[in-house]
């Protein structure tokens, strides 16, 4: 009977730990200007779409801290040229997207499941950095480039993705599923214990 309980408690704890997601802690709001997260992307790039979809579901609660600014490179030579110049400045290969730039300290090329959370953390860190330097804005200003900047919402509209409401207003479905599974497992454990006592 003890073995059954141990197995059930282990299963229950696995459900709960997988259902509770780590929250990114938000810095204190200050009069600091919003950090710009620059996304150089292409409408034909699957990884670009993945990144945009990630932020469509995870961006709203961070809009006081950072703003995602997009440059579509597949339909604008000036945007493409800016992306190549910035990629070279940060040591990335020019011509590849998605390219994300935050200030002068963070850049990433490509996409993986952990990239979205990393970008969020880096943007929040840049928000608190008193030495934050925007290399993209500097390049545009210094060279008087005529680029076509779009908002994140524009990028979402281009690929047909809807921006989700703030997570703080949504019920965390993983938690609900974990909770229900936990209650079911505890119920089964209780029935097993009662059946063995008889």
Question: Low-confidence runs (pLDDT<50, min 5 residues)?
Answer: 17-21, 167-171
CATH architecture: 3-Layer(aba) Sandwich
- CATH superfamily, by name, is Glutaredoxin
Distance between the termini: 13 Å
What is the arithmetic mean of pLDDT? 84
CATH class: Alpha Beta
Which fold name corresponds to the CATH topology?
Glutaredoxin
3D shape: elongated
Task: Report the count of strand segments.
Answer: 5
Given the structure, what is the number of helices?
7
| Widest β-sheet, arrangement of strands | 4-3-1-2-5
Radius of gyration: 23 Å
State the domain count: 1
What class, by secondary structure content?
A: alpha+beta
- Biggest β-sheet strands, sense, barrel: 5 strands, mixed
Secondary-structure element series: HEHEHEEHHEHH
- Classify the oligomer: single chain
User: Percent helix among the residues?
Assistant: 40-55%
Per DSSP, what share of the residues sits in E-state strands of 2 or more residues?
5-15%
Task: Report what the structure shows.
- With 198 residues, the chain is of the alpha+beta class.
- The chain has one domain (22-171): Glutaredoxin (3-Layer(aba) Sandwich).
- 51% of the residues lie in helices and 12% in strands.
- The chain has seven helices and five strands; from the N terminus they run αβαβαββααβαα.
- It has helices at 2-19, 46-58, 77-90, 115-128, 135-143, 152-159, 173-197; strands at residues 35-41, 66-72, 99-102, 106-109, 150-151.
- A five-stranded mixed beta sheet has the order 4-3-1-2-5, sandwiched between helices.
- β3 (99-102) and β4 (106-109) form a beta hairpin.
- α1 packs antiparallel against α7 and α2 crosses α6.
- The protein is elongated, with a radius of gyration of 23 Å.
- The model is unreliable at 17-21 and 167-171 (pLDDT under 50).
């Amino acid at each position: 009977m003890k073995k059954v309980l141990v197995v059930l408690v282990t299963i229950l704890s696995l459900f709960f730990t997988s259902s509770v997601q780590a929250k990114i802690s938000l810095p204190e709001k200050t009069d600091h200007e919003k950090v710009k997260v620059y996304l150089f992307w292409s409408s034909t790039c699957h990884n670009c779409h993945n990144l945009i979809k990630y932020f469509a579901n995870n961006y709203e609660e961070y809009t006081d801290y950072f703003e995602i600014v997009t440059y579509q490179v597949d339909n604008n030579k000036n945007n493409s040229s800016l992306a190549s110049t910035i990629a070279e400045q940060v040591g990335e290969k020019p011509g590849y997207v998605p390219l994300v730039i935050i200030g002068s300290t963070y850049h990433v090329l490509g996409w993986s499941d952990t990239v979205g959370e990393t970008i969020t953390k880096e943007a929040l860190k840049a928000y608190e950095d008193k030495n934050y330097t925007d290399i993209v804005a500097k390049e545009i200003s210094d060279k008087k480039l005529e680029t076509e900047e779009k908002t994140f919402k524009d990028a979402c509209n281009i690929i047909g993705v809807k921006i989700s409401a703030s997570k703080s207003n949504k019920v965390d479905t993983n938690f609900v599923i974990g909770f229900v599974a936990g209650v079911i497992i505890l119920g089964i454990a209780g029935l097993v214990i009662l059946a063995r006592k008889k």
